[in-house]
Structure formats: C-alpha cells, structure tokens
Design brief:
Largest sheet: 9 strands, mixed
Length: about 300
C-alpha cells in the first residue's frame, strides 16, 4: 500500500543568459520580467518553458492530441484515449479533456514547477542585431546596393536563477479517472528518468543552448508536500545565503531528510557551503535522491 502524503521537492540554482522572451515591442525583443517591491525588475523563465524542455528531453513518447470544438473555437487538448499508462508526460503534468454534453475529465499535475527567477536585477542591457553578412551576400550576388540590413534589439541578462520542483510520489502512476495504478517499478523508473533530465537540463533559444543544470540543489523525500526551500534559497553577490537555509533546517523533520549538492567553485562561498551544509557533488546528490525514491516504491 502506497504511503500517503509522500513528496519529493528540490530547489535548484543554475546560471544562464536570456532564456525566455515575451512579446516584442517594436523591434525590441523583451525578456519575461517581473517587478518586486524594491522597484527592480527581475527576468524569469516561466514554468511552462521549463516544462516544455523537460518533456522534450525525457525521451518518452509524447501524448496524442486532438482539437475539440467547432469553427474557430477549437481547443487543442490531449486525446480522450490518451492514458498515463502510455504517456509519462500526462502522468507528470496532468490533463484536462473536454467533450460536448459530457463532464470534463481532469487530472491535476503530480509534478509541479515554479518559475525560475533571476537573483540579480535586470539593468537594461540590450544586444544590437543586424543581418550584415547576409545583406552583403545578397547585394554582391544581385548587384542591388539598395538592399538594406534589418535592425533589431534584444534585451539580455546573465544571472543566477532559482526554481523549485515538487513531485507527489504517492500519486505518480495513479489515475482514478480510468482506474490506472502502475506497478512500483514503472513508477520508480519514471521518477528516476525525470531526475536524470533535471540533472542535465538545457534550453535551446535563438541559436544558443543554455545550460540549466544545477549548480546548487537542495531537497529530499518528505512526509510533507510543501516546497520546503522555495523561499529560502537565495543568491547574492555570487554567494548562496547559508543563514536562510539553516533556519529551515532547524526543523528535524526537514533536516533529517535533506541532502545538498553543489558544483565546487560555482559560488564565491563554496567552502562555506561545503563546511556548513555538508554539501556533496550534484552527481552524488542525485544518486542518493534516486536511491531514496527507489526505497520508497520498493517499500510500498
């Protein structure tokens, strides 16, 4: 019998450049940003963008889709016969299936993501872009010197980002809508593969491949489903805030089940992270976390 109310949560710090854009303003591509009480703007990578990259990199068969509705009001959704038995994507991130004159079939996400928010304010930097090389080529090829370059600008920022992943371990592989309950080995396989993706996550954007793998990661398997460290992990002046993390670790239920991994040298207080938080490598952290997940499913 699966033990109720068991969750996995990890909070992750990575470093990346300009990894999510919103709508353009004229010829300026605008980063997704939010404004905090200090009046500063902070760029962010939306949870939808991170989810997209996870699904891309899972290497599992993508769930089938259909367009429901009539005329111009059709809604793209997962197919009515798409089951979590066949598609880990909807096992992790849920679905809503609608049909005329019937009740909607809904399964909430069992894997949840926060936005990845920059830890340094956006300072207004922009990248000036032209297609000079192509313009020169076409003028040379055609002899038409009246062809001009297109000019554009993109907002840019390089920053540390923080996001949190939570997984309802006791609900993976279970769908009450159709009576599905996968065996423990498949549940464990799916979660382990998701963690493998997180360990080496990346994002392709505007000809760049941005590295989203963890430089710092903290979390574990708990009998509470709160995203424990979501508001406690902060980066300032290239340093992890140790004090805020230690205040959360004062709770024995949290401390006894928490591990920490980091990339040595990625932060200016790396030695302090190692000494005060007993941090190990990210690879060791992931091995230990997957072992805890396997033990949970084997014991249930």
């Amino acid at each position: 019998m699966i033990q109720d109310n068991m969750g996995l949560t990890v909070t992750i710090v990575f470093q990346a450049s300009s990894a999510n854009y919103g709508e353009s303003l004229g010829n300026v591509a605008s980063l997704k940003k939010l404004t905090r009480g200090d009046g500063q703007q902070y760029s962010y990578i939306s949870r939808q963008a991170i989810r997209y990259n996870i699904v891309q990199q899972l290497g599992e068969k993508e769930a089938t889709l259909e367009a429901e509705g009539s005329g111009d009001k059709k809604v793209i959704q997962f197919a009515k016969d798409a089951s979590i038995k066949d598609f880990p994507e909807i096992d992790f991130f849920g679905y809503m299936k609608t049909e005329k004159k019937t009740n909607s079939s809904i399964r909430s996400a069992r894997v949840r993501l926060s936005n990845a928010i920059s830890q340094e304010p956006y300072e207004g930097d922009t990248d000036f872009l032209t297609n000079m090389a192509l313009a020169q080529r076409i003028r040379k090829a055609t002899g038409d010197n009246t062809i001009h370059n297109s000019i554009a600008q993109s907002e840019i920022q390089h920053s540390y980002y923080v996001y949190t992943l939570t997984i309802d371990l006791d609900q993976i592989g279970i769908d009450d809508n159709d009576g599905t309950n996968l065996d423990a080995s498949e549940k464990n396989r799916r979660v382990a593969k998701l963690l493998d993706v997180i360990q080496y996550l990346y994002r392709d954007i505007r000809g760049r491949r941005e590295d989203l793998k963890p430089l710092f990661i903290i979390g574990g398997v708990y009998d509470i489903k709160n995203p424990v460290f979501e508001n406690a992990v902060k980066v300032k002046d290239a340093k992890i805030d140790i004090e805020s993390i230690q205040s959360v670790l004062d709770d024995p239920r949290v401390k006894d089940n928490t591990n920490i991994g980091f990339v040595n040298g990625a932060f200016d207080n790396s030695q302090e992270i190692k000494n005060k938080l007993n941090a190990v490598t990210v690879a060791k952290f992931m091995i230990d976390l997957k072992k805890k997940v396997a033990e949970y499913y084997e014991g249930n």
